[in-house]
Amino acid sequence: MSLLIATLAIGLVFAVLALGVYLSFRVYQIPDITADGSFTLGAAITARLLKDGWDPASATAAGAAGGALAGMATGIIHTRFKVNALLSGILVMTALYSVNLHVMGSSNLPITARTIFTPFESVAVSAIGKESTILGRTVHGADIGLFAGTTIITVLVCVGLILFLKTELGAAMRATGDNARMLRALGTSTDRMIVFGLALSNALVALAGSLFAQSQNFADAQMGIGVIVLGLASVILGQTLIGNVRSVALGVIGAVLGSVLFRLLVAIAIRMGLDANDLKLITAVVVLGAIVGPEQFKAFSARRARMRGRHAPA
User: Fold this and answer.
1) CA nearest neighbour of 117 among 252, 10, 234
2) Which residues of the chain have pLDDT under 50?
3) pLDDT tens for residues 70-96?
4) DSSP string of the chain?
5) Mutual angle of helices 190-216 and 227-242, in 10-degree steps
6) What is the pLDDT of residues 163-222, one digit of tens each?
7) 112 burial via Cβ count (<10 Å: 0-12, 13-18, 19+)
8) Which residues contact 69 (CB under 8 A, 6 or more apart)?
């Protein structure tokens, strides 16, 4: 039971990551690989500030702000200097590896101070004790607190993002991805919208990195490798769950559900004997299949229809 609760909690943390990827990949149609660096940046900044005595809320906000600056850098390189979006992300991600090492002072930084989840864990332990039995299974109070904390934070982020995307600025962001030419005709700077959108996207990714570091009590220079693929897997899985809809709210909710379901599937696979070293390889294959599969299926169906038409009796 504790494993299930911990898996759900981590799934909710990565749901915040999925929301950031949703903005760049679905709203802007930009595969922003900056996420691999900004995830670690959020964790590194938060871990360093917590070690220096900052309160958890301020340290978490600073981590998210660092991600926003990273996304802004990618956006400026792409729009101002006309560098390909993918290459812009690769350049910033590469630079962030050194930045993260300088921020942490080493490749790994443990977190021994209070975190943003500590109050939730304290309340849970006070309410049910260090251990309790639920449905015949032993549950740790700290895990319940972690789950409650991640749930509340993720819900607040989801509601805030949905409300923002329905504002005039949010609508302009969505229009930038859907029809940039029309937006320029209306006098709106699409370059500014792209920079702002990538900043917001990476702020969410860095926030996820900050929350993940606090939930695991450490930050590591390698912890962001491949998170863009995990985010894509969550977004694509969420779209499969809710269908190809235009609703902003359903798109956001789908990304969250996709993240939680993905972490559950990962936990089940590892429990059944999957080598954890193969996890990212399998994730990449699944994402590739989800991206190219529908088009390949349509092409196959069209070929079958043509073949039937040729062999149909006159």
Assistant:
1) 10
2) none
3) 999 999 999 999 999 999 999 999 999
4) -HHHHHHHHHHHHHHHHHHHHIIIIIIS----TTHHHHHHHHHHHHHHHHHTT--HHHHHHHHHHHHHHHHHHHHHHHHHS---HHHHHHHHHHHHHHHHHHHHSSSEEE--S--TTHHHHHHHHHHH-SEEEETTEEEEHHHHHHHHHHHHHHHHHHHHHHHHHTSHHHHHHHHHHH-HHHHHHTT--HHHHHHHHHHHHHHHHHHHHHHHHHHHTEEETTTTTTHHHHHHHHHHHHHHHH-S---HHHHHHHHHHHHHHHHHHHHHHHHTT--GGGHHHHHHHHHHHHHHHHHHHHHHHHHHHHHHHHHS--
5) 100
6) 999 999 998 898 888 777 777 777 778 999 999 999 999 999 999 999 999 999 999 999
7) exposed
8) 199
Structure tokens at 91: 């350049």
Place of tokens 């070293």: 277
Other Cβ atoms less than 10 A from the Cβ of 51: the count is: 17
Measuring CA to CA, which residue among 237, 219, 220, 254 is closest to residue 293? 237
Beta-sheet pairing, 108-110 with 218-220 = antiparallel
CA–CA gap between residue 32 and residue 199 (Å, rounded)? 11
Q: For residues 121 and 133, what is the distance between their CA atoms, to the nearest angstrom?
A: 17
Neighbours of 131 (CB within 10 A): 13
Write the single-letter amino acid at 172: A
**Average pLDDT over all residues of the chain:** 90
Place of tokens 């229009």: 175
